[in-house]
Specification:
mainly beta; 4 strands; about 10% helix; 4-stranded antiparallel beta sheet; about 90 residues
Length: about 90
């Protein structure tokens, strides 16, 4: 299957608070979306949906794991210029 977007074992962590404690936003997430397929992410507030979409679009880099767009790392891919993204905040 020819995948347009592939996330493999992706984790995304941030540092928060005065002591900069690590907080996991996305934990060990894998996903493959074939070319020509439309999909959506649903879940409760704070589940990591917007963060996952930002990882797919190359706005954020995963702490660990791989985010690929047409088989290339999304933050390096020229294909990223073809991706449009509008999120609720920022």
């Amino acid at each position: 299957m020819d995948l347009a977007i592939e996330l493999s074992g992706v984790n995304y962590d941030i540092r928060t608070g005065f002591l900069l404690k690590k907080k996991s936003i996305v934990k060990d997430f894998s996903l493959g979306i074939a070319k020509g397929v439309s999909m959506g992410l649903i879940g409760p507030n704070g589940a990591g949906k917007t963060t996952t979409i930002k990882l797919c679009a190359g706005i954020l880099r995963p702490t660990t794991g791989a985010a690929l767009l047409h088989g290339k790392p999304v933050w390096k891919s020229g294909e990223r210029k073809k991706v449009g993204l509008l999120t609720e905040n920022q």
